[in-house]
Every structure is written in C-alpha cells, then in structure tokens.
Design a protein that fits this description.
Largest sheet: 5 strands, mixed
Structural class: alpha+beta
CATH topology: Cytochrome p450
CATH class: Mainly Alpha
Bound molecules: protoporphyrin IX containing FE
Number of strands: 14
Strand order of the largest sheet: 1-2-10-7-3
Amino acid sequence: MTDDRGLIFVDPAAYAEPDRWHAVAAELRAEGPVHLVQAPGRAPFWAVLGQPEVMEVEKSSDVFTNAPAPVVMADPPSPDAPALESPVNTLIQMDGEEHRAHRALVNDWFKPGAIKKLTDQVALQAKRSVDEMQAKGGSCDFAADVAMNYPLRVILDILGLPEEQFPKMLRLTQELFADGDPDFERVGEDEQKMAVIMDVIAMFTGLNAERRSHPTSDLATVIANGEIDGKPLEDMDTYGYYLIVATAGHDTTSNAVAGGMHALLQHPEQLAKLQADPSLIDSAADEIVRWVSPVKHFMRTAQQDYTLASGHSFTKGDWVLLSYQSANRDERVFTDPFTFDVTRPDADRHLGFGFGRHYCLGAHLARLEIRAIFRELLSRLDTIELAGPTLNTASMLVSGPKRMPVTYSFKG
Ligand code: HEM
C-alpha cells in the first residue's frame, strides 16, 4: 500500500511549509527510523529519518555510495535507459579514491586554521550587509536584501572573482538549487540544469586561464593549478570545483542566516538572550543550522546488502535518502528537539553539515559567516520584528526563507 506521507520528501512545496513537513516527519519517525517512499512516476527509495541511522549510512561510505544519483531530483539510471550524464563532475558525485584525491586538493584551504585567516574579510562583508540594511531605513526584506547577498559576496571574495559577476552568480545558484520554485526556475528540468552548468563553464573559463598565467593566493589559483597524481586537473574537473564551491557555499548559508533570524524573531526570549550575551553566538550558530537544516537531503545507493544497528535491512541496489532535516529533530538524540534554544548543549550533534567523508567542506566557513553577521546585527540593532508573512523556497535540496519582511531600528 502506498503511504502518501512519504511525498513530503519529493514535493518541493512541502519543504516550503516547514511546520507541516516536520509534523509529518515526526509521525513517520515515531513508526520507525526508515521508511519506503513510493511516489508516482519516481524510482522508489528508502527515507532514513533517524540521526544515528543517517550517521551509520554516511559512515559506511564503501557500502552506500553517492554515485550514480546523489540527489532525489535525478532518478537512478536503469540498466536499459542510462540517465543523462552531467558534463561536470563534482565531489558530490564522487566516491572512493577519486573523491579522496579531489577533496585533498582544497581540504587545507577549508581547514579551521586557514578559515580563521578569513575572519576580518568576512567581518567586513557582514558589516557591509548590515550597513546596507541600516541605509534602507526601518524596513526591508531580510531574506532578499541581507541574507541573500552576504554569503555570495564572501564566495566571490574567496574565489577572487570581481563583484560584476554578482548578479550572474546569484541567478545561477538560485536556478540550480531552487529546483521546484517557480520564482527561480528555468523551463524544463534537464534543459534547465544543463543551461545553468553551461553558464558556469563560460564564466570560469576566463578565470582558469588568468590564474594559470598569473597565480595569486586565492582559492581559484589552487583549483586552476590543481594536480592529481602529478597531472594537471582537466578543465572539466576545475569547473566542477568552481561549481560546487560557488553553489554549495551560497544558498545554504543564505538560508541559515535568514532562517536563523526568523527563528530568533519567533522566539524573542532567545533573541534577548543573545543580545544580553553575544558570546553565545559561537554555539548558537550550530543550533541555527540544526533548526533550519538548509540542506534537506542527499541520496546514497547501496552497493551490497546491509543491516543497520537498529535493525533495518537494505538490499544491494537500494536507493537511500538521508533526511538531515528529520535527523536534526530526532527525539532519541535531542532533548526537546522542537525547542529552539541558543544555549542547547547538544546542538553540535546535528547533521546539518552531513557526516563522514563527504562532511561539508565549507562547514567552518559557514559557521564563521553565521557568527559574523549575527554578531554585527546584534550589536547594532535596537529592535527588529517580523512585518508580514515569511515565504520559504519550494525546493527538495536547499530551502529556507526567500521573503521575510521585517521592521527595525538601529541603536543611537
Ligand atoms: C550553513 C551552510 C551550509 C550547510 C547547511 C551545508 C551543508 C552541506 C551538506 C549537508 C553537505 C553534504 C554532506 C554529506 O554528504 O555528508 C555538504 C557538502 C558540501 N558543502 Fe556544504 N553546507 C554549507 C555551506 C557550505 C559552504 C560555505 C561551502 C563552501 C564554500 C560548502 C561546500 C560544500 C562542498 C564542496 C560539499 C561537498 C563535500 C563532499 O562531497 O566531499 N558548503 N554541505
């Protein structure tokens, strides 16, 4: 019998209503940590809803691979009808030694020590965004006017791209990630993805050439001149890198910032706590990521039969959805998971950045960005409140507030 509740995992609009989504997911979790989803016109898959179970699947990366279909938007290829191949290969599509070697190229760039060096640069961008908010007077759309721009500027900074590329990059990431939202979509799923990818390739061709002839200390220089086994990276592989850094680092963080602000405005006592003690923001950043879970899922494919410690048995070939948003409210792991608490001691057990070998490359940068902007906002804002309905992006992959009218006043 088909269980319609599982449609929350394949309906972009369901993610735009997080309260309803969470109510259904909690009901499913109460029945068990793993559920079969059979949606009309889609390949069936198992949704993993529990925190320990998502960790176990991620940890067993030899058994559960990202290839061939790491997101639910792309059905796995059937033997008789192979899926459209993406011309660009990113870390998300890779497994095993290929993944290790490619990730090693930029790993050092994203380590805590290296990211710490970006503190002043990121703080400057945070200040600039809050300056712009202040210049707007007493009202703005916090999601579109503040949260959207800030992480993209940080990405442009670290890639060493000029600001003129800003509007193009913004459109690219929105089109690529907001898979089900008519506000951002192009026509036709496959055509849309391909057109976006081709746009990125055109933009980064010039950057590659420039950094090869004139190396600097930026991330683009590391990518453009990267070598694996003594051989320079193929151009297509460098494009994959630019694409993953530009896209994975933008909408995700924007949604964390907008969603974090939304949570604080809905829980004014938490906002008051942070304002009274801004040092709490260091740990609150993780509570924000747990609460918002900007990245909704990734998929894995079982390469052999496997039984989870909690009992569910997968069969070779099973397609598996890791629901970070559900795992982050797992009642067995988090005390009062439906309470937003900036002092939560168990916040760092969240899986909002994933786990294991694919653990978010940009997690330290994302935390730095979230902390920097809230520090700036909290120290300068006198009042802030919601001034109308918040609308969320309809997307199965990355979602959070896309419109969030607020009114506010600044100190002094
Ligand atoms: C709050 C913001 C962010 C969230 C919630 C987030 C979340 C995630 C998640 C859930 C994954 C998959 C992990 C897994 O499969 O276990 C991931 C992977 C990744 N993220 Fe992030 N991310 C964020 C920000 C960033 C930033 C700022 C960057 C880079 C500038 C970045 C770059 C990447 C890359 C390159 C991967 C692929 C890693 C791999 O497959 O080895 N992310 N992220």
